[in-house]
Amino acid sequence: MVLEVRKKEKETTQNLVHRFTKTIRRGGVLIEARKRQFHKRAKSDLANKKSAIRREESREKYEKEKKLAKPTV
């Protein structure tokens, strides 16, 4: 997305900056930039599998300790 603002004849720099910021706001450029800035990548399949295995192991460990009356927090 390319937004273009050119200086008009006899226009002050302050008016040009004001028009530029208005164009940027209306164009949705800042919103799009923020979306891209805080976007998280999806986990890979291998990372998902490792995470699932770790969760299952910790769940089994917790259940075993619960049966032995040693709950951990």
Question: Could you characterize what this model shows?
Answer:
The structure is a single chain. This protein has 73 residues and is an all-alpha fold. The protein has 2 domains: 30 residues; 31 residues. The protein is 64% helix and 0% strand. It has 3 helices and no strands. The longest helix is centred in the C-terminal third of the chain and has 23 residues.
Descriptive keywords:
3 helices, mainly alpha, 73 residues, single chain, 0% strand
Indicate the structural class: mainly alpha
Give start-end ranges of low-pLDDT stretches: none
Largest sheet entry: none
How many domains would you count in the coordinates?
A: 2
- Apparent shape: rod-shaped
Terminal-residue CA separation:
51 Å
Provide the fold topology.
Elements: H1 13-27, H2 29-37, H3 45-67
Describe, in short, the structure shown:
Helices cover 64% and strands 0% of the residues.
